Amino acid sequence: MKTISVHSYRGGTGKTTFLLNIAGELVTRGKKVLAIDFDLRAPAFQSYFKIDKLNYLSDYLLNKKHLEEVIVQAEERGNGRIDLIFSSMEFLKQHSKQRDKLVRDDTVYLSKLYQLQKEVEENYDYLLIDTTPGFFYRSIDAMMISDILLIVSTPTISNVQGLEELWRNVYSMLKEDVNMYLLINMIEKEGEKVDKELVEKSIEELKKMGKKYFANKLIEIPDYGAMGERIHSFEQEPNKEFLNKISELIDLLNG
Amino acid sequence: MKGEKEKVKDLKKVQSYLKDSKKNLLLLKRGKKPRRKLKFLIKDHLFFTILFLVLIVGATTIPLLIKEKTDDKIEQPEEKKVKETLTLLSTNFTDSEGIPINELGNYTESSKLIILSTLSFSMLYLAGFNITIEQLSLQKDNILSILNDGSFVQFNNNSQKLSIFYQFLGLYALIQLLYATKNTEIGFSIDILFNSLNKQLREYYNKENRLFIDKNATEAFLVDQSLALWVIAITILYFNVESIFEFYLPDIIQDVLYSLNQDYRNATTNKIVSSISNKTKEPIQLEVTSFDLLILVAALSRVNLLYDYFFDNDLSSINLFENIINQYTDEKLIVYEKRFLNGHLLIRNQCFFTLTSYLLHLTVTGNQSLNVVTTNYWKDNKGFIEEINANKFSAEANYYGLITLASPEWSKGEYFYIQDNYKGNAVTSRADVLTIFVSLVIVFIINKRRKRIK
Questions:
Q1: Which of A18, A55, A96, A205 has the smallest number of Cβ neighbours within 10 A?
Q2: A106–B37: do the CB atoms touch at under 8 Å?
Q3: Among candidates B114, B204, B191, B93, which has minimal Cα distance to B156?
Q4: B30-89 residues touching A, CB cutoff 8 A
Q5: What is the DSSP string of B334-360?
Q6: Cβ contacts of B13 on chain A, cutoff 8 Å
Q7: Average pLDDT score over residue span B310-327
Q8: Domain containing A115: what range?
Q9: What pTM, to 2 d.p., does this model score?
Q10: CATH, residue A139
Q11: Does position B329 have pLDDT exceeding 50, yes or no?
Q12: CA dist., res. B444 & res. B322, Å (int)
């Protein structure tokens, strides 16, 4: 089983969309995928999958539920299958003490995540983990147990600066253990006004970083127009260019 | 908005979490539990923590109160002597790059001196002497520069490996440096140690003969077996690991102890010998030196802490230490090189006698021996000499002096460190009972001899 985590400096870079579209494409290739919403501060899987009455990842992390109770079967295509583990903001809001436990700097969650990885490795080909953006202990846990780390950035100055800081303090310390790729997402958000000059400058900076820090393991996603919160492999009218790019990306990650 | 200082502090916390997590992930992959920070354990088990603290305070203060009345007063750390020695070392025995030397331009002994230097600086730091992070960092750079593909090699000559003894002394120094730099910014990967130990075990451990053997030599030395045992024992005790790659360390200890009993005892005289033949296992060098025995006792003192496996072994550190005191020391506890007060009076032997005394918790003996080093081997308020009556300063002598000065406080810290880290059944009250017993026997021997002399 291969473990891939997706991380970014800021929210809104499209990392969840990429992660779930990678998952969708893997499923159409007949692979068994478990995707975990580990973005404990802003969980987003429920925008893509309308599923009610859930148990959440936090239930497992806090030893309230067994693993099989928090895994949800979502979609099957031929031999392929995607199962999900959801997170919930509501849960964190209601259980402030548990939330404190989840954000604190305690290795117990690394053990739980490692235990989860070991428990599912026989049943899945891929474990995909969506993480909380920025410097967050639980995101570091996810990166630690990953084979591949996909770092998503949009071309903005703050993302460029944040990425530099993340490299210095986190990514550089993991470079021996985890295979890292930098993904530049150039898809413009619908209705958002952008300063073209700043975007160009940021893209240049990101490319330089890709060369300097990530040994040119750089993926550029051109602007295909709005992608929406959907998984194109499961759609009747997908954006084919986007899907081709995702397919190319998977081939690259698989070496 | 957060201030810049707070941000840097947060980033440091993230880096430190990442470093700890790397180690913890390794533990998890080896099927062991990760190390949780104390504050979380306390929060989760508040009741048991309070109970535990009450018991600990009771268990530590009461014996101390009783012991205070019987023990000699422990001297204050000899800061000034350490400072003078470090000055002598840096002016006379170090080149401009910080590499230890015995004479300018001559690097033939540098690898051995780097090992001793790393060992002494790490021990001084752990003993609470004023050693800076920069000084430790230099030791790290130096010792890693002589580590080539897991083996310790001659300075500036990667193809020439050091002897078995120095391979294991290098590992011992590396372990102390790891222990010293554990919570500092210059900490380094434990894998360097494990890889190097694995390399030495592959290269020198002969499973069939149950001995550490240099294939190019004809004899196997007692001191090599002892030092290897010592290193293996503290690897288990400090890092709570039992396997290094394909090697199961307790089995190696058990096997080497068996060989020490069987092969290093002269069948006719029942005395321990200094070396045996690689092939026939017949004794070659019959006369065992105080240094040979001291390293053996030091090793056994740590092996004995691995209680479950080795406590019942025939080799007794009590008897051996008693023999050293009776046959190799005079009434002032000056250690001689050879039996019945013969041979040279070397600081190296006095250093290991002091260190071993503290490892066995023989504080009074240790203090007396420390006093020998600081009076008989300390010259002109400058530094330490190699040999009584020879008046020769050397880099090596000064490193031994520093190790001796660090010994009392370092050994206390080591014992608690082992108790914190080793999760086997070893360091228990039964080991403490053994310590009390050893103390009583040694105090009895020394008192008896003093009365005889009077």
A1: A96
A2: yes
A3: B114
A4: 33-37, 40
A5: PBPSBTTTBS--BHHHHHHHHHHHHHT
A6: 105
A7: 72
A8: 2-254
A9: 0.55
A10: 3.40.50.300
A11: yes
A12: 10
